[in-house]
């Protein structure tokens, strides 16, 4: 079975992290974002993954593929566009990589999505409904901010799509995970095309599109505030389902869900949590306060500093008694001076090395 992951975006909403690293390789839960998806695909029986990338993504993506092809015993290849092709065009470009004599359906995932990935259940759903295309949908409290998927109640068949409705028409939105028969590729031209706005509505009009409601949590983590919200959901999921497997820790000085790499060094009298991720090789000096934040690989947080609701990029240093707060994002190798205060006013503050 095969899958394609759409990773062609430029990651502008996660700058300055994406100045140093392609968005799919930015850490989430102490491993690259895209690795969460690749591991879930392998668990569902996928043996070949195609990464649909843009023309500007660097060599580091190739190095990632070489490393994880071997570790996961999967075939991982690139399909590289030379001009923007939207969310459907990359499927046409990768057609020869996705189709084989088996005729099996293939997965398509948006790389920003974090969830429980019930992919085996989706395969069964697709078979049971005889769908040409199946999509996952998730329930939201305020559907007016999204494109809503209107479903036939009894059969889970998609009737239509309504973009940012002014009146209530439903509370399910596209979750960015699809299972498609090879015939869907015949509907897509090699040009800039939207699968959500052009391809799926046509399939729905022919009564061949079905929607599976995603159980559990879901978040598009492509911007800082949602990244941190997704992290909280992910850690809560691990606490309930795999508390030991991924180093979710608890003990003196730890509140709630905290993930710390085994190589991180944490000093005395620290108060950490809830909802904190600490990466490999980090040094957290005595008296530090961390909550609702990510501290990426190689970071040093000096004595009595406080980091809250923020992201500290790789190899950065936060000085003694400094404060980083309110969805501030530090890029790679940023130096925050002793007693300096960085916090958001109206927009997330992004700091990069100059």
UniProtKB/TrEMBL annotation:
Gene3D superfamilies: Hexapeptide repeat proteins, Spore Coat Polysaccharide Biosynthesis Protein SpsA, Chain A. The keyword Magnesium does not apply. GO terms for cellular component: cytoplasm. Keywords: GTP-binding, Nucleotide-binding, Nucleotidyltransferase, Transferase. Residues 2-234 form the Nucleotidyl transferase domain. It is an enzyme of class 2 (transferase). It comes from the Eukaryota. Residues 254-343 form the Mannose-1-phosphate guanyltransferase C-terminal domain. The keyword Protease does not apply. One of its GO terms (molecular function) is GTP binding. One of its GO terms (biological process) is GDP-mannose biosynthetic process. Its EC number is 2.7.7.13. Pathway: Nucleotide-sugar biosynthesis; GDP-alpha-D-mannose biosynthesis; GDP-alpha-D-mannose from alpha-D-mannose 1-phosphate (GTP route): step 1/1. Belongs to the transferase hexapeptide repeat family. This is mannose-1-phosphate guanylyltransferase. It comes from Brassica campestris.
């Amino acid at each position: 079975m095969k899958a394609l992951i759409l990773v062609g975006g430029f990651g502008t909403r996660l700058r300055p992290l994406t100045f140093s690293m392609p968005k799919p390789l930015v850490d989430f839960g102490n491993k690259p974002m895209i690795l969460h998806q690749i591991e879930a695909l392998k668990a569902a029986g996928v043996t070949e993954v195609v990464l649909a990338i843009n023309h500007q993504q660097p060599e580091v993506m190739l190095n990632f593929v070489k490393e994880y092809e071997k570790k996961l015993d999967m075939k991982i290849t690139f399909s590289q566009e030379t001009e923007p092709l939207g969310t459907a065009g990359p499927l046409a470009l990768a057609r020869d990589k996705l189709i084989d004599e088996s005729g099996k359906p293939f997965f398509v995932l948006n790389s920003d999505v974090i969830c429980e990935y019930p992919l085996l259940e989706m395969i069964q759903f697709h078979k049971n409904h005889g769908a040409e295309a199946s999509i996952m949908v998730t329930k939201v409290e305020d559907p007016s901010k999204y494109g809503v998927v209107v479903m036939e109640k009894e059969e889970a068949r998609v009737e239509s799509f309504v973009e940012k409705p002014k009146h209530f028409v439903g509370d399910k939105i596209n979750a960015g995970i699809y299972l498609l028969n090879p015939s869907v590729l015949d509907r897509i031209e090699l040009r800039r095309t939207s699968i959500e706005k052009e391809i799926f509505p046509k399939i729905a009009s022919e009564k061949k599109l079905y929607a599976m409601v995603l159980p559990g949590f879901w978040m598009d983590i492509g911007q800082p505030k949602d990244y941190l919200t997704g992290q909280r959901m992910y850690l809560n999921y691990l606490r309930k389902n795999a508390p030991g497997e991924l180093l979710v820790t608890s003990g003196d000085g730890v509140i709630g869900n905290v993930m710390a790499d085994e190589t991180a060094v944490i000093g005395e009298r620290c108060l950490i949590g809830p909802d904190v991720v600490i990466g490999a090789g980090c040094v957290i000096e005595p008296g530090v306060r961390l909550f609702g934040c990510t501290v990426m690989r190689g970071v040093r947080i000096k004595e009595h500093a406080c980091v809250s609701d923020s992201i500290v990029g790789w190899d950065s240093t936060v000085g003694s008694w400094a404060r980083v707060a309110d969805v501030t994002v530090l890029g790679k190798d940023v130096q925050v001076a002793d007693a300096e205060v960085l916090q958001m006013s109206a927009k997330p503050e992004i700091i990069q090395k100059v």
